[in-house]
């Protein structure tokens, strides 16, 4: 009951939190078979919430055991279908319970349940897949062996790719890959189970890696993200993930074979981003602002009262959820998921308070009902005009500020164009290398 209710709440919350959710299926998924989803883990709780909220199946989760340290937590997590696995680096005194827990996961599959496993075993907001552990492979092959290989398990890899999981109104791409064929591992598991687990773990890692963006060196993450924004208009790929993958491959190439090019580009990009930040802009918003005319932006003013009505109704939720997330976040990769979770909690809390206050002020059930019905429309309008009114605010600041601001903005656009000319030359080098590699093959 609690699981179903939260699933619907978070489905609504995702549409508010993310500006765009791009879901890709490699092929239709059979929904009448026990399924194990295996995914990368860049954003802590957000990853599990997203997958559980977007797939139709009811999921059980393999979760980090150190979170189950209090009776209330154990009860609460059980309502969310979360089950502990203990890690040597955090709870070495409890790792002896893991064989029992693995057996429980295998029984869940045998009984027809569906599992979500993050085989990296930990969450880090990075552009790479960390070492994949063998838990998922052991659960799948163990459940099949326990039923004399009559259990028809479906193993589906997932790639989660965020533009920025900790920023409100960002984007996310969720890629469901082709089910991993388990036929090749049945015979091997009967004679060499350890080798079968290792082989399947390697295939899981390769399948997830193909659906995510891989940057070889951690210090290059920020560079890839910056270039991804800069090249959005230049590299028109079917999805943002494919564009970022192409950028990452190019950066990996220059890091290996032409580090001199990166040494020349990095300070230029760093200075450009620093100046953007000084204007409280990103690359996409800079282009929007440069292309905006005062007439078009001023045409938004008739919608301003509706936007203010929406903002005033959502202001307590926005402020309190951000304050709670900032105060309670110890790890950066948890910030986005906590912001989302507190947003849902605060929305439910303030909705009751607001409805009660309107009824107390008006003593009218009809007025309270009308107010309640206006809130979804106000929310939609607020999200619809959120970006536009931010643009209007920044445009107004430039108009009312010193004329030097416009000149600095023009200089920033010239700097951007200079960067793009440099990048086009780099792309030519990269694609020439790709062609040479293709000819050698």
Written description of the protein model:
The protein has helices spanning 2-17, 44-54, 71-79, 98-110, 135-146, 183-191, 193-210, 221-230, 240-257, 259-278, 283-291, 294-298, 304-328, 335-362, 365-400, 403-440; strands spanning 18-25, 35-39, 59-64, 82-85, 114-117, 154-162, 170-176. It has 441 residues and is α/β, with parallel strands linked by helices. A seven-stranded mixed sheet has the order 1-7-6-2-5-3-4, sandwiched between helices. Helix 3 (71-79) links the parallel strand 3 and strand 4 (82-85). Helix 5 (135-146) packs across helix 7 (193-210), helix 10 (259-278) packs antiparallel against helix 16 (403-440) and helix 14 packs across helix 15. It is globular and about 75 Å long. The protein starts with a helix and ends with a helix.
Q: Can you tag this structure with a few keywords?
A:
441 residues, globular, alpha/beta, 16 helices, 7 strands
Give me the secondary-structure topology.
Blueprint: H1 2-17, E1 18-25, E2 35-39, H2 44-54, E3 59-64, H3 71-79, E4 82-85, H4 98-110, E5 114-117, H5 135-146, E6 154-162, E7 170-176, H6 183-191, H7 193-210, H8 221-230, H9 240-257, H10 259-278, H11 283-291, H12 294-298, H13 304-328, H14 335-362, H15 365-400, H16 403-440
Parallel strand pairs: 1-7, 2-5, 2-6, 3-4, 3-5
Antiparallel strand pairs: 6-7
């Amino acid at each position: 009951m609690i699981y179903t209710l939260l699933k619907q709440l978070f489905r609504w919350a995702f549409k508010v939190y993310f500006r765009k959710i791009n879901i890709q299926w490699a092929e239709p998924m059979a929904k009448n078979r026990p399924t194990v989803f295996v995914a990368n883990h860049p954003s802590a709780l957000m990853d599990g919430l997203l997958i559980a909220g977007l797939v139709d199946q009811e999921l059980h989760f393999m979760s980090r055991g150190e979170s189950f340290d209090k009776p209330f937590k154990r009860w609460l997590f059980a309502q969310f279908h979360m089950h502990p696995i203990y890690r040597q680096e955090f709870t070495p005194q409890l790792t002896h319970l893991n064989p029992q827990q693995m057996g429980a996961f295998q029984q869940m599959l045998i009984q027809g349940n569906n599992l979500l496993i993050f085989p990296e075993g930990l969450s880090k907001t990075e552009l790479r897949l960390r070492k994949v552990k063998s838990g998922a492979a052991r659960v799948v092959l163990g459940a099949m062996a326990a039923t004399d290989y009559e259990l028809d398990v479906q193993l589906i890899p997932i790639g989660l790719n965020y533009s920025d999981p900790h920023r409100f109104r960002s984007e996310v791409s969720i890629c469901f890959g082709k089910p991993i064929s388990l036929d090749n591992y049945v015979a091997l598991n009967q004679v060499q189970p350890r080798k079968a687990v290792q082989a399947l773990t390697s295939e899981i890692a390769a399948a997830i890696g193909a659906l995510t963006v891989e940057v070889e060196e951690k210090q290059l993450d920020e560079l890839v993200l910056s270039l991804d924004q800069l090249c959005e208009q230049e590299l028109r790929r079917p999805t943002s993930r494919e564009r970022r993958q192409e950028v990452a491959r190019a950066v990996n190439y220059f890091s290996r074979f032409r580090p001199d090019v990166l040494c020349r580009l990095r300070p230029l990009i760093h200075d450009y981003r620093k100046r953007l930040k000084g204007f409280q802009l990103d690359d996409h918003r800079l282009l929007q602002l440069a292309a905006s005319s005062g007439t078009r932006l001023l045409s938004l003013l008739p919608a301003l009262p509706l936007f203010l009505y929406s903002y005033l109704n959502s202001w307590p939720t926005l402020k309190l959820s951000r304050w709670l997330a900032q105060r309670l976040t110890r790890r950066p990769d948890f910030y986005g998921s906590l912001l989302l979770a507190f947003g849902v909690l605060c929305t439910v809390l303030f909705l009751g308070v607001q409805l009660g206050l309107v009824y107390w002020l008006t003593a009218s059930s009809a007025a309270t009902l009308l107010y309640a019905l206006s809130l979804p429309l106000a929310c939609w309008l607020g999200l619809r005009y959120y970006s536009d009114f931010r643009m209007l605010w920044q445009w107004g600041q430039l108009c009312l500020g010193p004329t030097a601001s416009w000149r600095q903005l023009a200089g920033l656009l010239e700097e951007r164009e200079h960067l793009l000319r440099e990048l086009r030359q780099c792309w030519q080098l990269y694609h020439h290398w790709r062609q040479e590699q293709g000819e050698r093959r």
